[in-house]
């Protein structure tokens, strides 16, 4: 995770450039020649996921960060007059390369997490945070953007380019470029710690999700579950070399149980395990507890906001959003709640009455609501969520999405052929 303001500073993309050969080789011929054995440094087009190994990450990141720093230093000193073509666009190209390197690493860490990949990912985070913080507090780069904004060049730019300049200046301020030295140092310490502990928070949730499962050996406990859910549970059991069925806290498995399982105790167990993940409660209480981390995140965010002269983190967060201030957000939410609550209460009362009158359930618990809502829908409208599935296969849904894009934006999307994926 990259700090919000400094990450946004160099991750704005108003165009997509997939070119061959890699434009990076034009900037750094020696760099390209010496890195062909590392897929993170030699890739063109889409990432070669199957070739990326944990041992590739740190050397590639170190190399690109070193080259980026050298190239930025040259850009800053190459001219006294800064323009879009001679400064902003080359800078965007430089950081596009870093983004293209780290994005597949971050993605693999999310979808194919392993101990080795997690280790190199966590080693890379402080380096990235330091790099982006340096840039966000680089007064020479800030002055270059300011010179463009204040000079004749700005009037010649189109609306999108001016937006890039405006956002950059805003993000520099949010990165502490105007802070005195001692506050700049404290800002760096805060964003470094935040990058590490927010990642640890996410890892705890992931580990807690994977660290619990419910093994079922009696087919009677599967009553009500659709065949697709049973097949997934059987597959989970086979992967764990167990007989019967295994239900996990991965959402497709969890949601099927909470929505369809007739076994109320199974629903309760799944709900409790899911809703207490990474906390001091539930079946794995304290094992991956995020309580202290959450409190520390809140404290650091508040301190960072106050360093930048915001009253609180909400004000800081809204500096890059459309809402005017926290009060406007709260007013919106309160108005939404006021208007929607009567309808939600009516629906809940109907489900409660249905469960009581049709199924003899005296008290409706949280883990009962999805189950009896689905039963009521089936009775009232003679269809279930499972009935809808055949009408929305993935190929048809993707095709429909692409058609919407074509009608709205005139963009035609077609399959380019086999691509390297991270999982079969």
Task: Please characterize this protein's 3D structure.
This protein is mainly α and 424 residues long. It has 20 helices and 2 strands. Residues 8-34 have low confidence and may be disordered.
Short description:
The protein has 424 residues and is an all-alpha fold. Helix content is 66%, strand content 2%.
How many helices? The count is 20
From N to C, what is the helix and strand string? HHHHHHHHHHHEHEHHHHHHHH
The end-to-end span amounts to 27 Å
Radius of gyration based on Cα positions:
26 Å
Q: Helix amount, in percent? A: 55-70%
Provide the β-strand percentage band: under 5%
State the secondary-structure class: mainly alpha
How many beta-strand segments?
A: 2
Order of adjacent strands in the largest pleated sheet: 1-2
Largest sheet: 2 strands, antiparallel
* Unreliably modeled segments: 8-34
Overall pLDDT confidence? 91
- Shape descriptor: globular
Write the layout of secondary structure elements.
Elements: H1 4-9, H2 24-27, H3 29-34, H4 39-42, H5 54-77, H6 84-111, H7 115-136, H8 139-150, H9 153-156, H10 159-174, H11 181-210, E1 213-216, H12 227-239, E2 245-248, H13 251-260, H14 264-275, H15 291-307, H16 313-318, H17 326-359, H18 369-381, H19 385-388, H20 394-409
Antiparallel strand pairs: 1-2
Helix pairs in contact: 5-6, 5-7, 7-11, 8-10, 11-15, 13-14, 17-18
What are the salient characteristics of this protein?
424 residues; two-stranded antiparallel sheet; globular
